[in-house]
């Protein structure tokens, strides 16, 4: 049996590490929050050095007097720890996330590797609690190789979707100004429904959407006009890009260099090619489109932020094939869908959903071509895929 008691130990300048080897079926909730999980079956405790440690051990901020762990073996070993080493709290911006580790850009423009504080996001609705673009508070001492994220600052904007196969919100990026929706004319095929869903997500997350159509050299101008026609009545800026011409658009270049932009679209649509075209120094790997499926491969396997100017950041994301809308139902879709939100005020019924109801001003505007039929068909398609509440 080992008994832990509370004690003021601030005068001690050294640490002792106690490794507790616990039964595999021992319930970890019975242990203190001060204990740091080390690996399965083992817990590492950070303790002040004290003589006769086998008789009496001191654990910081431990208030559960008389905890018994039995059977148990232990071993101690001291590690000199400078008592003047301070734990610093800083702000950082998340630039990359990989399997449990987060890479931050601190205020000195240095990259810091971090993990998340264990209980920070308990019972969170998010699939991934920290997203690229998040501004976080982290702490790190001079002796630590890895920092610890302890808080996420409030987000002013975000891009999120419903996690495929899981009832959770996946935040793709946060604190962004522009969503660049990248859509190819073909290879892979142009998908109106996917673009419409991303327009809804931009409205929900308070982001300005921009449509970039790539591979325009593969079709005639008349076909390009047909693809753009449903979006002409929207407050949606668009740009055309071709792989045949190296010239960049000065207006798009200025947008990218003066804000935070996230690029999203299908695999193979040309997100990485577009970034390489505008910023060759990035040298992002580019994949091919399958001749059999006409779908691209995931050359970008994780979300990452690139700094391309003093005030310009671009966030490259893995290609998507589906875009589920989070927290959007048949009831509130009309509040975020382009054009519908503008004309729904004219409907006779306040709770009109603009699908089956009579005296619907939105459907009248579709009949008179005020709202493009393809845009309205996209609304109905998304509406029918959503829960009623």
Strand-helix topology:
Layout: E1 4-5, E2 14-21, E3 36-39, E4 42-48, E5 57-58, E6 73-80, E7 87-98, E8 101-106, E9 111-116, E10 126-128, E11 135-141, E12 147-152, E13 158-162, E14 169-174, E15 178-184, H1 192-204, E16 208-214, H2 221-228, E17 237-240, H3 250-257, E18 260-265, H4 271-278, E19 304-309, E20 312-316, H5 340-343, H6 361-367, H7 373-385
Parallel strand pairs: 1-5, 9-12, 10-14, 15-16, 15-18, 16-17, 18-20
Antiparallel strand pairs: 2-4, 2-6, 3-4, 7-8, 7-11, 8-9, 11-12, 13-14, 19-20
Helix pairs in contact: 1-7
> What is the tally of helical segments?
7
Oligomer: single chain
Stretches with pLDDT under 50, minimum 5 residues: 1-85, 289-298
Number of domains: 4
Question: Can you describe what's shown?
Answer:
With 389 residues, this protein is α/β, with parallel strands linked by helices. It folds into 4 domains: 77 residues; 68 residues, Beta Barrel (OB fold (Dihydrolipoamide Acetyltransferase, E2P)), CATH 2.40.50.140; 144 residues, 3-Layer(aba) Sandwich (Rossmann fold), CATH 3.40.50; 53 residues, Ribonucleotide Reductase Protein R1, domain 1, CATH 1.10.40.50. The protein is built from 7 helices and 20 strands. The strands form 5 sheets. A 6-stranded mixed beta sheet has the order 17-16-15-18-20-19, with helices on both faces. Strand 16, helix 2 and strand 17 form a beta-alpha-beta unit. The longest helix is centred in the middle third of the chain and has 13 residues. 28% of the residues are buried. The N terminus is likely disordered.
């Amino acid at each position: 049996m080992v008994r832990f008691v509370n004690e003021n130990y601030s005068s001690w300048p050294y640490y002792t590490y106690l490794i507790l080897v616990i039964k595999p079926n021992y319930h970890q909730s019975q242990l203190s929050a001060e204990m740091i999980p080390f690996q399965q079956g083992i817990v590492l405790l950070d303790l002040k050095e004290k003589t006769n440690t086998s008789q009496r051990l001191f654990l910081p901020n431990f208030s559960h007097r008389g905890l018994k762990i039995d059977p148990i073996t232990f071993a101690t070993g001291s590690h000199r720890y400078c008592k003047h080493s301070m734990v610093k709290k800083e702000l950082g911006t998340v630039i990359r996330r990989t399997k449990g580790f987060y890479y931050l850009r601190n205020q000195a423009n240095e990259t810091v590797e971090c993990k998340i504080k264990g209980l920070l996001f308990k019972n969170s609705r998010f699939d991934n609690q920290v997203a690229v673009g998040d501004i976080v508070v982290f702490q790190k001492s001079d002796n630590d190789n890895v920092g610890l994220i302890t808080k996420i600052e409030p987000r002013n904007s975000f891009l999120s979707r419903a996690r495929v196969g899981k009832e959770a919100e996946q935040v793709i990026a946060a604190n962004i100004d522009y969503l660049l929706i990248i859509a190819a004319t073909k290879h892979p095929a142009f998908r109106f429904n996917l673009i419409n869903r991303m327009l809804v997500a931009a409205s929900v997350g308070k982001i300005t959407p921009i449509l970039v159509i790539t591979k325009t050299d593969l079709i005639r101008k008349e076909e390009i006009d047909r693809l753009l026609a449903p979006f002409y009545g929207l407050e949606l800026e668009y740009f055309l890009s071709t792989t045949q011409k190296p010239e960049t658009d000065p207006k798009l270049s200025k947008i990218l260099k003066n804000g935070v932009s996230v690029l999203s679209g299908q695999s193979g649509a040309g997100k990485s090619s577009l970034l390489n075209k505008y910023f060759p120094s990035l040298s992002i790997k580019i994949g091919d489109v399958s001749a059999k499926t006409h779908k691209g491969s995931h050359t970008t396997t994780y979300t990452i932020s690139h700094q391309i100017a003093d005030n310009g950041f671009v966030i490259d994301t893995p290609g998507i094939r589906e875009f589920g809308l989070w927290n959007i139902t048949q009831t509130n879709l009309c509040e975020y869908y382009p054009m519908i939100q503008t004309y729904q005020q004219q409907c006779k019924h306040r709770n009109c959903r603009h699908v089956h109801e009579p005296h619907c001003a939105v459907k009248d505007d579709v009949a008179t071509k005020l709202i493009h039929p393809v845009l309205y068909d996209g609304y109905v398609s998304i509406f029918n895929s959503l829960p009623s509440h």
